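Worked example 3 (structure in, sequence out).
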């Protein structure tokens, strides 16, 4: 009896209420409850440990990505202290890292995805409004695709011309540099070998990637979209072949083969892969994914098709009606200002479509098909508070080429003190190429692109620079983009209709370079 009292007293002292049976403690149930409590504590501790490990793993991934980006974009202390020669060696070129495109990550957020859905809804509204207008005016519910058929006409000519340019780009520079490398290490007259190979390569490049595309565009009088395909592919092949030569020649010069050994030279397969992968910087090996997501490829091409239709509706609903009416009015300040503000909204939509369709969908589609893992084709340019940052982040693919083969090589030749001259040379090159594309694409000379890039763009680069950090400057940047796109769409549309209503009457120099919209009276 006393032992039972002791047991009850100890239970009360411990603050527990052990299960009883006929006034006595059931120790089997008590032991079972303690074991269950211990197991519960063990499970809780295991869950906590798993959660902590997962959080650490995710944080490590984020930090590794941030450190990788900072290493690529920020020079080290040794680089800052070093001289120009140590900073601009070939080995310090672009480093490719496996990473996703920024929009792919942002679209995983429901709020950002909703903005995308808003643009899709606007596309449906454009289609419905176009169908409604066509039904009211012409009594039909079928989209008039004559604009498409006209813009992409003579595709057979485009295909065979592209095939010739591609065939030369694949075989010409590759074999010329290969033969030159073999002769360079085996011949004692190296200066003559270098001069001869350079002359042959320059002549071939000028003929096939310089004169030939222009001849095709002018000889066959291709429509605008077909013209742009030929000219843009011409520029892409020039940039790709230059990168291959620029990256391969120093390697050939440094690696002298021993007797009986063959010259170390990139494989044709690696060069062929480079011609299609979405980068303009040649490497023998790139980071690759393990498999192809064909559903992702199909979705990207469907989005590109949707963007083309989006562009069609913008032109049909927002541009053509406005500028057809403007074409009946004489050129004046009032006409220009009204046309400018009418063109601001469609101009900005065209900019966004061009960015999304090409820099995101098109490049990601080819990257997926080729298992190309580095998908950083752009950065968050929309958050820029300076035009300096905007130029760096808008198009990473072209920016890398201009930086490594334009800006950096310029500094390597003339020294660090010529940074401003190097920047101006890159802007001048970009302005000339943009103006060349638009002149041949539209079929008339109107140096809007050259003036905005070489003039306004340079001023903005040096004035609206990285020192501007306030969000107000982001508003200013967007305002300038809206106005700039409005100027482009406005002036090119006015000149397009002026060329139709007031065709040239001569072939003199001033007749060719003077915009028709300045003098056309539309009578």
């Amino acid at each position: 009896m006393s032992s039972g009292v002791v047991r009850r007293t100890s239970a009360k002292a411990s603050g527990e209420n052990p299960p009883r049976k006929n006034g006595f403690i059931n120790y089997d149930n008590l032991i079972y409850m303690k074991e269950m409590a211990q197991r519960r504590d063990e499970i809780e501790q295991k869950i906590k440990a798993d959660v902590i490990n997962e959080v650490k793993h995710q944080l490590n991934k984020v930090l590794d990505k941030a450190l990788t980006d900072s290493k690529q974009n920020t020079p080290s202390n040794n680089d800052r202290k070093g001289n120009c020669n140590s900073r601009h060696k070939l080995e310090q070129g672009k480093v490719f890292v496996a990473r996703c495109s920024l929009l792919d990550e942002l679209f995983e957020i429901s709020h950002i995805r909703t903005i995308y859905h808003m643009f899709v809804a606007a596309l449906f509204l454009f289609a419905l409004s176009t169908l409604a207008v066509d039904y009211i005016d012409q009594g039909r519910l079928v989209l008039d695709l004559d604009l498409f058929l006209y813009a992409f006409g003579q595709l057979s000519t485009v295909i065979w011309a592209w095939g010739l340019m591609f065939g030369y780009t694949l075989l010409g520079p590759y074999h010329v540099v290969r033969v030159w490398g073999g002769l360079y290490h085996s011949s004692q007259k190296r200066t003559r070998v270098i001069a001869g190979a350079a002359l042959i390569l320059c002549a071939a490049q000028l003929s096939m990637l310089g004169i030939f595309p222009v001849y095709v565009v002018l000889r066959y009088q291709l429509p605008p979209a077909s013209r742009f395909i030929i000219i843009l592919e011409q520029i892409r092949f020039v940039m790709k072949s230059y990168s291959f030569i620029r990256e391969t020649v120093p390697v050939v010069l440094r690696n002298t083969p021993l007797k009986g050994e063959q010259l170390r030279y990139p494989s044709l397969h690696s060069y062929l892969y480079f011609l299609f992968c979405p980068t303009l910087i040649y490497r023998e090996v790139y980071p690759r994914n393990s498999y192809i997501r064909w559903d992702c490829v199909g979705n990207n091409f469907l989005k590109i098709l949707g963007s083309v239709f989006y562009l069609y509706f913008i032109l049909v609903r927002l541009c053509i009606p406005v500028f057809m009416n403007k074409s009946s009015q004489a050129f004046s300040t009032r006409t220009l200002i009204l046309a400018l503000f009418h063109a601001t909204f469609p101009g900005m939509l065209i900019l966004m479509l061009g960015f999304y369709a090409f820099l995101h969908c098109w490049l990601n589609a080819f990257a997926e098909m080729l298992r190309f893992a580095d998908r950083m084709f752009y950065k968050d340019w929309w958050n820029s508070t300076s035009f300096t940052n905007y130029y760096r982040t808008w198009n990473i693919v072209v920016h890398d080429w201009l930086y490594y083969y334009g800006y950096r090589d310029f500094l390597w030749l003339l020294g660090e003190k010529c940074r401003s001259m190097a920047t101006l040379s890159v802007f001048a090159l970009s302005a000339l190429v943009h103006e060349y594309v638009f002149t041949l694409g539209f079929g008339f000379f109107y140096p809007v692109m050259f003036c905005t890039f070489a003039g306004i763009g340079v001023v903005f680069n040096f004035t609206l620079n990285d020192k501007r950090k306030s969000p107000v400057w982001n508003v200013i940047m967007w305002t300038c983009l809206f106005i700039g796109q409005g100027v482009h769409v406005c002036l090119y549309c006015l000149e397009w209709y002026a060329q139709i209503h007031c065709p040239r009457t001569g072939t003199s120099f001033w007749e060719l370079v003077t915009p028709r919209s300045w003098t056309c009276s539309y009578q």
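Notes: Confidence is low (pLDDT under 50) at residues 1-16, 70-91. The chain has 19 helices and two strands.
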